[in-house]
Amino acid sequence: MIENELANKVIGIAIEVHKVLGPGLLESAYHESLFYMLNKAGMIVEKEKKMPVVFEEVKLDCGYRIDLLVENKLVLEIKAVEKLNDLHLAQMLTYLKLGKFKLGLLINFNTPMLKNGIKRVIN
């Protein structure tokens, strides 16, 4: 499955999670619920995937972790904030660059309508 098809399926599942939980919960509640539902849908999902920084051919564990990595292709960064900002975008761009991934989704569950809280980020 290509990244765009995968992203569309993930967005549909995220919307279902949001319909059940609504806005206002902690990020961890959405993170775990989405992880569960993606697995239930038969997708391969890694949680808190470590992303080392490579400096002069040495891998450095600097604490970077992707919230969810779907099918080793799609980076998901889960938020529950008032609104997404440039720092969130920079974080996603860093993950895409470190992992050499093409597509990521910033998903802010703290919105009345989830479609307004999703930002596609392309590397």
Question: What does this 3D model show about the protein?
Answer:
This protein is α+β, with helices and mostly antiparallel strands and 123 residues long. It has one domain. Helices cover 38% and strands 28% of the residues. The strands form two sheets. A five-stranded mixed beta sheet has the order 1-4-5-6-7, sandwiched between helices. Strands 2-3 form a two-stranded antiparallel ribbon. The longest helix is centred in the first third of the chain and has 19 residues, at 3-21. It is globular and about 45 Å long. The model has no long low-confidence stretch (mean pLDDT 94).
What's a concise summary of this model?
The chain is an alpha+beta fold and 123 residues long. Helix content is 38%, strand content 28%. Helix 1 (3-21) crosses helix 2.
Which helices and strands appear, and what pairs or packs with what?
Blueprint: H1 3-21, H2 27-40, E1 45-50, E2 53-55, E3 58-60, E4 65-70, E5 74-79, H3 86-99, E6 103-108, E7 118-122
Parallel strand pairs: 5-6
Antiparallel strand pairs: 1-4, 2-3, 4-5, 6-7
**Average pLDDT score:** 94
Total helical elements:
3
Read across the widest sheet, the strand sequence of neighbours is: 1-4-5-6-7
Rg estimate, integer Å: 14 Å
Indicate the percent of residues in helices. 25-40%
Low-pLDDT sequence parts: none
What does the largest sheet look like? Answer: 5 strands, mixed
Topology, number of strands: 7
Domain module tally? 1
Distance between the termini: 18 Å
Bin the strand percentage: 25-35%
Order of helices and strands: HHEEEEEHEE
Shape: globular
The assigned structural class equals alpha+beta
